[in-house]
UniProtKB/TrEMBL annotation:
The active site is at C153. This is N-acetyl-gamma-glutamyl-phosphate reductase. Its main location: cytoplasm. Residues 24-145 form the Semialdehyde dehydrogenase NAD-binding domain. InterPro entries: AGPR, AGPR_AS, AGPR_dimerisation_dom, AGPR_type-1, NAD(P)-bd_dom_sf, Semialdehyde_DH_NAD-bd.
Length: 334
């Protein structure tokens, strides 16, 4: 999918920001798992500052009482779309459940079109007018984009695993994914119920998951995705089965992954098979475990990432840094 240019009404330039001036961010969905990770990242960032954090449930409560990493006086506030767009923040980050972003985007378009919007949900990932921000694969198109859709967590892991072999695939890619239950958000469901997950692995959405459609669209080839949720809190293991158009040996496979990611600070190619227990709380993705079938024409690749970080908040921060012309990894811990 080509990243379309923003529509003409969005061409207004952001207000001029000095070299060291703070850049203000408003966050809607601030109570959630992803919102909380973003607050921690922004609290420690040298250039961004929180202008507001919106939550219905915590309206009026002190942010510092919930997020000790934040030292200021801000309180949660319950802002509707019009009020959020009217705050004059340089960027608006939407960390709401799916299907809720549109009113916020409409209000920003109408009232403050120069505001940078980063949406964490799936709502604009299929919209050619929005930039799809998976920087390791799309940063060449990032300059000047002010409507940015953050990829899905599994979708990031799948694309990291598949992209280096994209030109030699002979058919659909099968992906088996296992997520920690923080992936299911905070609204109670079987998928985030620790009692139901104990000693269990829960398959769900076994065809047609939004991330299956997302990756199929982004890579332009069919991906067959089978997600599961497990008893751990955070982190994804994604095992991809790639049918190849010619035989490969392992050196050539590894060479492709090192060529793609060797210089990437947030994607690590590993000799060993990545383990989810080693990625929880880390900001990068890992890819490795390269295993070829005897005929060299079937490759299995494993990627891991923390769904709340590289799968969501860290990637959003990469996208925000790029949108404001800052170094892409500014404020992202090693
Ligand atoms: N969890 C993950 O691993 C990942 C999540 N995402 C996406 O990021 C977004 C946020 O996910 P996550 O943090 O897990 O979700 P949570 O369920 O943890 O949080 C949702 C947030 O949205 C607010 N909210 C819920 N319903 C409404 C509503 N009707 N109107 C206004 N605000 C509402 C909640 O606060 P309050 O009720 O107080 O208003 C809360 O702050 C989702 O779109 C998700 O798909 C993307 C990648 C990974
Ligand atoms: C375990 C679990 O339920 N995971 C979520 C992850 C999706 C997500 O959060 O991403 P979106 O932004 O695309 O909704 C799911 O499969 O729906």
């Amino acid at each position: 999918m080509a990243d379309g240019a923003p529509p003409p009404r969005l061409q207004t330039r952001p207000r001029s920001l000095g070299v060291t001036a703070k850049i203000s961010l408003g966050l809607v969905g601030a109570r959630g798992h992803v919102g909380a990770e973003l607050i921690r990242l922004v609290a420690a960032h040298p250039r961004f500052e929180l202008a507001f954090v919106s939550s219905r449930e915590r309206d009026g409560q002190r942010l510092a009482d919930h997020e000790p990493s934040y030292a200021g006086d801000l309180r949660y506030t319950n802002l509707d779309a019009e009020a959020a767009a009217g705050q004059g923040a340089d960027a608006l980050v939407l960390a709401l459940p799916n299907a809720m972003a549109a009113p916020f985007v409409a209000q920003v378009d109408a009232r403050a079109p120069a505001t940078v919007v980063v949406d964490l949900s799936a709502d604009y990932r299929f919209d050619d007018g929005w930039h799809y921000g998976l920087p390791e694969l799309t940063r060449a198109d990032a300059a000047g984009k002010r409507r940015i859709s953050n990829p899905g967590c599994y979708a990031t892991a799948m694309q990291v695993a598949i992209a280096p072999m994209h030109d030699v695939l002979a058919g659909p890619v099968q992906c088996f994914g296992v997520s920690g239950y923080s992936g299911a958000g905070t609204s109670p469901s079987d998928k985030n119920d620790p009692d139901k997950l104990r000693d269990n692995l829960m398959p769900y959405s076994l065809t047609g998951h939004v991330h299956e459609r997302e990756v199929t669209r982004r890579l332009g080839l069919p991906v067959e995705f089978m997600p599961h949720v497990a008893a751990h809190f955070r982190g994804i293991t994604l095992t991809a089965n790639l049918h190849l158009s010619r035989p490969f040996d392992l050196d050539e496979v590894r060479g492709r992954y090192y060529a793609a990611y060797g210089a990437e600070p947030l994607v690590e190619v590993t000799g060993d098979t990545p383990w989810v227990s080693r990625i929880a709380g880390r900001h990068h993705a890992e890819v490795g475990g390269f295993t070829l079938a005897a005929d060299g024409r079937r490759l299995v690749v494993v990627s891991t990432l923390d769904n709340l970080l590289k799968g969501a908040a860290t990637q959003a921060l990469q996208n925000l840094n790029l949108a404001f012309g800052l170094p892409e990894t500014m404020g992202i811990p090693a």
